[in-house]
Amino acid sequence: MSKRKITIAITGLNNTDNPGPGIPVVRGIRESDRFDARIIGLAYENMEPGIYMEGALDKTYLIPYPSVGIDPFMDRILEIHKKDPVDLVIPNLDAELFTFMKAEALLRKNNISTYLPTLEQFEERQKGNLDSFGEKYGIDVPHSKSITSVNDIPELREEFEYPVLVKGKFYDAYIAYNSEQVINHFNKISAKWGLPVIIQEFIRGTEVNVVALGDGTGETIAAVPMRKQYITDKGKAWSGITLGDKKLLQITRDLFKQNKWKGGMELEMIKTNQGIYYLIEINPRIPAWVYLAVGAGQNIPEALVRLAMGEKVEPMTTYEVGKMFIRYSYDLIGNISDFEKLSISGEL
Amino acid sequence: MRLRDNIAVSESGFLFDPNSGESFSVNASGKEILRLLAKGKSLAEIEDAILSGFDIDEKSFNRYMDDFLHTLRRFNLIEAATDE
C-alpha cells in the first residue's frame, strides 16, 4: 500500500516531567503504514524538548501563546501555513483548544483540517460543570463547585466534607484538609491558571483512565483503559498498564453514544473499593500516555488523522491487556546554533 | 469459591489482575492452591492435595489457608462458584 503524503502541524512538544501529548502523537503517526507524514512542530517555548528530538519533527515554528488573542494567534498559524502548507493541525494542550475550535472555520477556509469536539461538547465537560455533566449522561461524579474568590472558601464547609480537591481550570490539583489549605492552593492555582478554581469532593479509590477517540456520530473508534503504576510528585503517570476493565469501556462507549464526542478524549475516573466508578475529569484531547494505546494495538493518533482527512475508520475493539509503559529521562545534546536559529528566526 | 476467570497466574507464581492492574507473587504452595481454585476444586480437595504434596500439618495448613483466602478476597481475586 502506498503511503499518503500529508503535512501535519502538532503542538504539545513539552516532553518534560509533565509531558505534553505532542511527541507521543508524533510517534503514533510516524508508525503509521498509511501516512508518509511531514510533521511540523508548533512550539511555545524554544526549550521544548520535542523540538530537539531526532526523528520526531521535520520542522519547528515558534508560535505565541493563545492568550495573545485569537487574531494574532491565527495570523501566525496562517503565516506558517503560507510558507509551509499544512493539511491538518492537531492541538494537544487544553489551554489552546478553545482558540483552535473558535478558529475552525477560518482554518477550514484555508484548507487546514482539524478534528476537534464542538464548543458545546467542550464547554459542558468543563471541570466546573461536572455535576450537570454527570446528571445529563448518567455517570457518577463527585460534587464539584467553581469558586472565584477566597471569600467563597468559608462557606464550602456547608457543602463539602474535608478533605477536598482544589483544581485549576486547565491543570493542577491539590488535596486540602482544611480551609487554610484551600486558601493556599486557591492562591497558587488562580495565579497560574486564572479563575475559576474548582473545589471537588474527594473520592477514595483507585484512579483509572481511558484514552478514547470518537467520530462525532456516537461511535467509539478506539478506547484503551490504563492504571497509573508510578506517579510523579506532579501527579503525572511515570508508568502505567493497560486494563481489561469491561465496565470502564462500557462507560466510555455509553458516553460517546450519547454525547457524540468528536476527537480524542481522556476520561479520568476513580474506582472505589465498592466497584463504583466516579468520573473526576474529562480532558478534551489525546493524553500524553497515548503511546501506550499504540503499543497495545490501537494507533489512536493515526485513526484521528484518518478521520480528520475524511476517511471511514472502523472501530478498534481489541488491544493487549497488561501492556506497560515506563517513562525515562534522557539528556539530548544540542547545538547553540539551533537554539540561536529558533530564537532569532522563530523556526528550525 | 474459585479464582476469577480472567486472573492469570504464570509458572513463576506471578499473578496479574487485568481489571485492577494489580500484580502479586505467590510461593509454590500458593501457586498450587490458586491452580486448584482455578480448576474449581473444593476446599477439602485443596487441603488433601496440599497436605500430601507439601511438608505441612493440618493445623498449620488451616491457619495459613484462612489467611490466604482472606487476602485473596480482599484483593477481589476469588469469587463464589456458581453452584455455591
Label the overall shape of chain B. Answer: globular
Shape of chain A: globular
Biggest interchain interface, per-side counts: A-B, 12 and 7 residues
Subunit organisation of the chains: heterodimer
The pLDDT mean of chain A sits at 94
Q: Summarize the main sheet of chain A.
A: 6 strands, antiparallel
- Proportion of beta-strand residues of chain B: 5-15%
Low-confidence stretches of chain A: none
Structural features, described:
The complex is a heterodimer of chains A (348) and B (84). With 348 residues, chain A is of the alpha+beta class. Chain A has 3 domains: 4-115 and 331-345, Rossmann fold (3-Layer(aba) Sandwich), CATH 3.40.50.20; 144-201, 2-Layer Sandwich (Dna Ligase, domain 1), CATH 3.30.1490; 204-326, D-amino Acid Aminotransferase, Chain A, domain 1 (2-Layer Sandwich). Chain A has 12 helices and 14 strands. In chain A, the strands form 3 sheets. A 6-stranded antiparallel β-sheet of chain A has the order 13-12-9-10-11-14. In chain A, α1 crosses α11 (300-308). The longest helix of chain A has 15 residues, at 179-193. Chain A is globular and about 60 Å long. In chain B, β2 and β3 form a beta hairpin. The chains are: A alpha+beta (348), B alpha+beta (84). The interface between A and B is small, with 12 and 7 residues.
Brief overview:
The complex is a heterodimer of chains A (348) and B (84). Chain A has 348 residues and is of the alpha+beta class. Chain A has helices at residues 22-30, 70-83, 94-102, 104-109, 119-124, 130-137, 156-159, 179-193, 246-259, 290-296, 300-308, 336-345, and strands at residues 4-10, 35-43, 59-62, 88-90, 144-147, 164-167, 173-176, 197-201, 206-215, 220-231, 237-242, 262-271, 277-283, 324-326.
